[in-house]
Design goal:
Elements (H helix, E strand, L loop, with lengths): L1 E5 L2 H9 L7 E5 L13 E4 L17 E4 L5 H4 L5 E4 L10 E6 L2 H11 L2 E4 L8 H17 L5 H12 L5 H8 L1 H12 L9 H11 L1
Parallel strand pairs: 1-2, 1-3, 3-4, 4-5, 6-7
Antiparallel strand pairs: 5-6
Helix pairs in contact: 4-6, 4-7
Length: about 210
């Protein structure tokens, strides 16, 4: 099975680190404009959050997995052959992916051939893992803003207490503050529990200005 992957260097490395069944061939390209040379691919992974022209003749009805953590399939108006995944830094290498799909049977069959474990979730912003990490980061910013502890101490406490690979602020550096803030803002529209911490919003404003 030939799989064409549009991804940056970090995402490529994470995919290659995953244990994959024999018979799966990954071809990595830098951007979607190179797809024409790979029209014979069986599956496409779009991991770099570029805008996808779903009318492209190349894609047709083949399985497509797209990195869309915040926007849902419904919001993007994507067709039945599309599945949402989380390709934020650090998440592709997870043993189990949480995904939302317009065609669960198709997505399940493809990922089973890959030998990758997944859990199918509702088509909602953040899926599961990104939402959990974002909430933890938000609480860390609340604590920082209230002078409960320092960045270093909060990171250390989370890693020692929960056995997480990264502390909240280490996750921010890895994922990007803008992504975290925008996910929380999207979630808070329907649930005020996700309101962005003032300190996080302040850092975001400084970053954006």
């Amino acid at each position: 099975m030939k799989v064409t992957v549009v991804a940056n260097v970090g995402q490529q490395q994470e995919i290659l680190l995953k244990k994959t069944n024999a018979g799966i061939t990954f071809t990595f390209i830098d951007n979607i404009s190179e797809l024409k040379a790979h029209a014979d691919s069986n599956v496409f992974l779009f991991l770099n959050e570029e805008v996808v022209d779903v009318q492209m003749e190349i894609i047709k009805e083949k399985p497509v997995f797209i990195n869309s953590v915040i926007e849902t399939l419904e919001q993007k108006k994507l067709p039945l052959n599309f599945t949402r995944i989380n390709a934020w830094p650090g998440f592709l290498q997870r043993e189990v992916w949480d995904v939302a799909s317009n065609n669960i049977n198709m997505a399940h069959n493809v990922l089973k051939l890959f030998g990758w474990d997944v859990v199918f979730v509702k088509d909602e912003p953040g899926l599961i893992a990104a939402r959990v990490i974002s909430v933890i980061i938000n609480e860390a910013f609340f604590s920082l803003g209230e002078n409960v502890s320092t960045i270093e101490e909060i990171d250390l406490a989370m890693k020692l207490g929960t056995n997480y690979p990264y502390g909240p602020f280490e996750w921010v550096n890895k994922i990007g503050l803008q992504k975290i803030r925008n996910l929380l803002a999207a979630l808070s529209v329907s649930d005020k529990r996700y309101l962005v911490a003032p300190m996080l919003e302040k850092k975001y404003s400084q970053f954006s200005s």
